Amino acid sequence: MTMLSVNSIDSAISALFGPSVRVVDRQRVAGGDINRAYRLGLSSGEYVFLKCNRAGLLDMFNAEARGLEALRAPGTIGVPEPLAVGVDATEAFLIMEYLSPASRRADYWETFGHELAALHRAECGSYFGFPTDNYIGSTPQINTPMDSWVAFFHERRLIPQMKLAWGLLDDRTRRDLTSVIERLDTLLPEPAFPSLIHGDLWSGNALCGPDGKAWILDPAAYVGYFEAELAMTELFGGFPERFYRAYNEVNPIDCGYRDRRDLYNFYHLLNHLNLFGLSYLSNVSSIAKRYA
Ligand code: ADP
User: Fold this and answer.
1) What percentage of the chain exceeds 90 in pLDDT?
2) What is the pLDDT of residues 97-112, one digit of tens each?
3) Domain assignment of residue 49, given as a range
């Protein structure tokens, strides 16, 4: 289905499901940090998932929809289909496939590991970046393509977050951070191949879909190094060991990854410092000190 751009939820529903189909039920879904979310029941008996926010955030929904489409393209892992993006009289909205709840398969984590690894191994071109910019949380994420991963991570990831965070940092952290950034090419390798990554994959952005398997949501997708994705999965508690073992069967993880992990997560911690404040400063300072 081609994604629609429309000016009301009702017109999206009738364009997608037929002129006589109406929204007959609207249930609030809890859990979103940023947007309001609903399950819409349709007169046809189907459901769709709706996210709403103020009209100025339309671009964020367009970016999310483009990320979902890109991640769906290789067909390796469940990703909800974006159906329509628009802005009505008051609000921006994104309508996507609704994932009805189901219980997890016994091999949920192994399958998740295998399928994410397959996504990371799928053919995705020869540059690092994405055709359009998107957002990490609500911070703009610049994706202008580059040939080198390390240069991309430097220019498009760490430098913009460092500029935003500069006023929040003490002198010691500024010195350490500057030293890390200057020596990045001695700390990080170029990957053997580029990977399309979800970009914001923590446990809150994976959900059990109707097939009992993990589906991935709310992406900040771009072509990068899969090690950066694995690092993010470990940032807030991590996934079970079974996930990483299975991942490694399909896409082997280099033994040097452990030493680099916190450096990739530097990007997310700086972003958290910028978005949520000084409670993240000690984490940022200690990573800067360790790699300086
Ligand atoms: P936000 O962008 O505000 O963080 P999320 O995308 O995380 O919102 O969605 C909020 C909640 O709705 C999630 O915790 C998840 O459980 C649920 N959810 C997200 N996408 C779907 C979907 N396509 N189908 C069913 N439930 C969903």
Assistant:
1) 93
2) 999 999 999 999 999 9
3) 4-96
Ligand 1 pocket mutation, candidates 33, 72, 83, 207, criterion most atoms within 8 A of CB: 207
Tokens of 238: 């991590």
* Overall number of domains in the chain: 2
Tell me the average pLDDT across 116-122. Answer: 98
Mean pLDDT for 148-154 is 98
Angle at alpha carbon of residue 130, lines to 67 and 252, rounded to 5°: 85
Q: Whose CA is nearest to atom 20 of ligand 1?
A: 217
Copy the structure tokens of residue 32: 């979103």
Whole-number pLDDT of residue 6: 74
Cβ(38) – ligand 1 distance below 6 Å: no
102 ligand 1 Cβ < 6 A:
no
Q: One-letter amino acid identity for 215?
A: W
Instruction: Point out the domain boundary residue: 63, 96, 129.
Output: 96
**DSSP E strand boundaries for 98-248:** 134-136, 139-141, 195-197, 206-208, 214-216, 222-224
Catalytic residue list? 200
Please tell me if the CB atom of residue 202 comes closer than 6 angstroms to any atom of ligand 1.
no
- How far, in Å, is the centroid of ligand 1 from the Cα of 31? 7
User: Does 34 share its domain with 155?
Assistant: no
Q: Are residues 32 and 150 in the same domain?
A: no
**All residues at 6 or more sequence positions from 266 whose CB lies less than 8 Å from its CB, including other chains:** 158, 180, 284, 287, 288, 291
pLDDT at 33 over 90: no
Do 134 and 92 share a structural domain? no
> Is residue 123 located within the same domain as residue 259?
yes
Residue nearest to atom 6 of ligand 1 (CA): 218
Same domain, 70 and 198: no
Q: State if residue 99 touches ligand 1 by the CB under 6 angstroms criterion.
A: yes
| Reported confidence tier of residue 2, pLDDT bands at 50, 70, 90 | low
Q: Which helix (H) or strand (E) holds 85?
A: strand 82-87
- What integer pLDDT is reported at residue 1 of this predicted model? 45
Task: Kindly report, residue by residue over 275-291, the tens digit of the pLDDT.
Answer: 999 999 999 999 999 99
